[in-house]
Amino acid sequence: MNRHERRKARAIGIEEVPADSPRAAEGMARGAVCCWRECEQTFKGLRMPEGWRSLLIFWSAWPVSTIAEIPRKTWDRDGVLCPEHTKALEALLKDLGRGLKESEPAGRA
Questions:
Q1: How many angstroms separate the first and last alpha carbons of the chain?
Q2: Is 8 buried (19+), middle (13-18) or exposed (0-12) by CB count in 10 A?
Q3: What are phi and psi of 33, to 5 degrees?
Q4: Which of 35, 92, 101, 106 is the most interior residue, by most CB within 10 Å?
Q5: For 1-23, how does the pLDDT look when each residue is reduced to its tens digit (9 = 90+)?
Q6: Three-state secondary structure along 70-94?
Q7: pTM recorded for the entire structure
Q8: Which of 4, 15, 6 minimizes the C-alpha distance to 72?
């Protein structure tokens, strides 16, 4: 995130957590679990393994171009999906010509 994006993100309540902070250490210890019902796949650490994806469901009156534009109060769901359920969700969605890009790093689709 560049400084303008960080400033805008702070203004709407999104903050960057330094990797060496106590909050980051707590998050690394806790890890993340796939948000698919009845799935227990997990990972630990700050970086998602290859194939995992972030899932953010929110409401907006207009399309947004960066996550910093999304007010946190409009987030209905914030979670992660394991590779199996990332593919399952993708299979349910209509093809808009911009599906998951296998060549991009995890969390950047």
A1: 16
A2: middle
A3: -120, 145
A4: 106
A5: 567 766 665 555 545 556 566 65
A6: CCHHHEEEEEEECHHHHHHHHHHCC
A7: 0.59
A8: 15
